[in-house]
Amino acid sequence: MERWCDGSLEIVPVAGEIDARKAINRMQSTQDRLAIVLSDEIGGVSLLQYIHMSHANTQLALLDSEKGRRNDYIVQLDMSPDALEVALEELFFAWNPPNPRVRVTGPPGEREGHFLRRFLYLNGIPYAWLDITQSEEITVYVDGATIPHPTPSQLYAALGIIPAPKHSLKYPYDLVVVGGGPAGLSAALSASLVGFSTLVIEAQRPGGTATASINLIRNYLGFPGGVAGTRLAKLALEQLATLEIDWRSSHSAHALRQTGDGRYEIRVGKHPDDVVSAGMVLLACGQIPDRLPLGEAQWTEERLLNRGVYYGAEPSDRLVELGRDVVVVGGGDSAGQAALMFAKGGSKSVALVAHEGPTMSKTLWDEVKDYAPGLIQTYWGNITEFSGTDSLNKVLVKGRWYDVPISATSAYINIGGTPNTTWLDDSGIELGDGYIRTDIYLADSLRQQEALPFETSLPGVFAAGDVRVNSSRRVGQAVGQGTAAVASMERYIRKNPQVLADPESTAHLLLDIEDFDNPLGRRGFKQWLLRLLSQ
């Protein structure tokens, strides 16, 4: 259960009914905290009846060999791990705490609703959901403030998990990090500890695409059993919240340009005044999903996008697709993992469509082939059209020797990604096939010799993670690159102290290490020391 909920719920195991009553009596604010009680049949019914008398909103479940409902308030659950994992999340959804910070209106059963439900569950956030099925709009209320169609970044900010920015948009930051994935978060952490005033721009998903990983991340040091991407992101945000780091969750980067003083400006909105100033920039903006090339039939994908056609599959999608016909497009690891997730999650049928056969690992392909023969059907060919009026109902596949229609209520496209760099087209950043070139990969031999590790064609602008050329798309690699890029920034600042525009930045202490006689260094050190003493 700890693993299923990413550690978001406090699991209290007890030996029996007497111990359970004692544990509940010891708890503080149980009306707001006691979400679920699970019990076996031995003494379980009397315990659950006792709890219901004082905790009417707590969800009560009896572990049994059968599913169903014992009475109006006790649910019987199948004891198999797969069924219990799903049931735990559903029980948290059904819990109706008396004083929730978060209230939600809108339909909970479609993709956006399930994503939001899983986000709140994996972050252990009590909420109440008012099902307004006649409205297609999902609206979230946090402490009374209204947030329509919120992104994870906006929710984290509204809940205070990401602290409010300490500086205005006009503040001259030492470092601006574009992207809040593993590389960006790692760099922000290291930069703040060094003393750089740091801003992170991430409007969508803190933790990046790693948080949408279906399988556990097993290539990250310190987690011998693997770690869920969502848990890794939560731990990172908890750590960053203790440091002097600003976060902009309602802005995204649109353009980058160098100013005359060696600093940079990043446009973060449509208004001309939506600009942030940076002495240095880290580009960790990741990738965006590749679109499926349909030629003249592209309009069929656009018309049904997010109405049955989706880019990327997430763990929350398995509940959406329970008992439905699903198509997964792609032959790589992501597609294979998605096909298995839907098959194991109770989808009626799963069709895996790949252009020229599987490119996933042999181990994964063997598992896809051998899992419940007949449940996962494979087709080698191309999608030529999506069909449906208000939502998807059919996918047309053209193979080498056949054309076949496949019944489907949903299609999940997992065909890789493209670097998120189109916004850098006029910036002077050197790209290679869309990826950012750095250090030894720069085409200009002179600039190649001058550039620090992870530095781009523009001095003081660095790149790390999936957006960098020759990336292997591994979480561990991205975290390491973010930290290493900050080490290069320290060297850059010592040679270019003029880009530090705020004399109160503790980064001036770096200059004092090498050049204590420099007036800028002395002033910075004195101000830093006075601030430290005043605290």
Please characterize this protein's 3D structure.
The model has no long low-confidence stretch (mean pLDDT 87). Helix 7 runs parallel beside helix 14 (475-495). This protein starts with 16 loop residues before the first helix and ends with a helix. Helix content is 31%, strand content 22%. By secondary structure, it is of the alpha/beta class.
User: How many helical stretches?
Assistant: 16
For the terminal residues, how far apart are their CA atoms? 42 Å
- List low-pLDDT spans: none
Helix fraction bin: 25-40%
**SS elements, strand count:** 26
Largest sheet: 7 strands, mixed
Short summary of the structure?
By secondary structure, the protein is of the alpha/beta class. 31% of the residues lie in helices and 22% in strands.
Give the topology, please.
Layout: H1 17-26, H2 30-33, E1 36-39, H3 44-54, E2 59-64, E3 68-69, E4 74-78, H4 81-94, E5 102-105, H5 111-122, E6 127-130, E7 139-142, E8 145-148, H6 152-158, E9 172-178, H7 182-194, E10 198-201, H8 229-240, E11 245-248, E12 255-258, E13 264-267, E14 275-283, E15 287-289, H9 298-304, E16 309-311, H10 317-320, E17 325-329, H11 333-344, E18 349-354, H12 362-370, E19 376-387, E20 394-399, E21 403-407, E22 410-413, E23 417-419, E24 431-432, E25 435-436, H13 445-450, E26 461-463, H14 475-495, H15 508-514, H16 519-534
Helix pairs in contact: 7-8, 7-14, 11-12, 15-16
